[in-house]
Amino acid sequence: MPLNDLGDYVAASLADDITGIGFESGELVVGARLEAIDRVLKFLRDDINCQFKLLMDVCGVDYPEREQRFEIVYNLLSLTHNLRIRIKVACDEDTPVPTATGVFSSAAWWEREVWDLFGVMFSGHPDLRRILTDYGFEGHPLRKDFPLTGYVEMRYDDEKKRVVYEPVKLTQEYRSFDFLSPWEGVQALLPGDEKAEEQADGEA
């Protein structure tokens, strides 16, 4: 069915479980209530008019200026109807999101990634631990308030024969970039060229 009809159908069927229906870049977007995400995903997977059997991705977005600063985004695909739909859930850093692993087992690793990079907890997850950073890492690197350099750097210590963590040290001096292309930024006379000119004058 067309996206407009699907949006109306989902809105009517899940009136108590969603916060709104919209369109972004030609895709249907459904805002779901935090406590109802499980029911919304089950309906979209099992209903005959939806059949979104594939969970393509779960990711996080950080909006620090909002009271509920995080959005958890679920991207679903229906091969039967050749349609995609996006589900969004808003949460803060202290409130866990119900895991989707009971509906889509593939959500397990993506939820681990969201926890690792954004610090959003998923209640009921069977194995919620870091997946991209190492076990001793502190913080969540995709939060907007996380510094680009990080807090610590890791290196192998030959004396201790193990990996050690140290505070970040920026040894590189400040550089000013003019952002010119190599052709625009090249000096007319490069260092050393003056010797070639002197030799040419002497031969003449």
Question: Can you put this structure into words, describing what you see?
Answer:
Helices cover 24% and strands 27% of the residues. By secondary structure, it is α/β, with parallel strands linked by helices. It has one domain: Beta Polymerase, domain 2, CATH 3.30.460. A five-stranded mixed sheet has the order 1-2-5-4-3. A two-stranded parallel ribbon has the order 6-7. Strands 8-9 form a two-stranded antiparallel ribbon.
Side-by-side strand order of the widest sheet: 1-2-5-4-3
Structural class: alpha/beta
Distance between the termini: 84 Å
Share of helix among residues? 10-25%
Q: Indicate how many domains the architecture comprises.
A: 1
> What is the CATH class name?
Alpha Beta
What's the CATH superfamily, by name? NADH:ubiquinone oxidoreductase Nqo5 subunit
Please tell me how large the radius of gyration is: 27 Å
The CATH architecture classification is: 2-Layer Sandwich
What is the percentage of strand-forming residues?
25-35%
User: Roughly what is the average pLDDT, rounded to an integer?
Assistant: 88
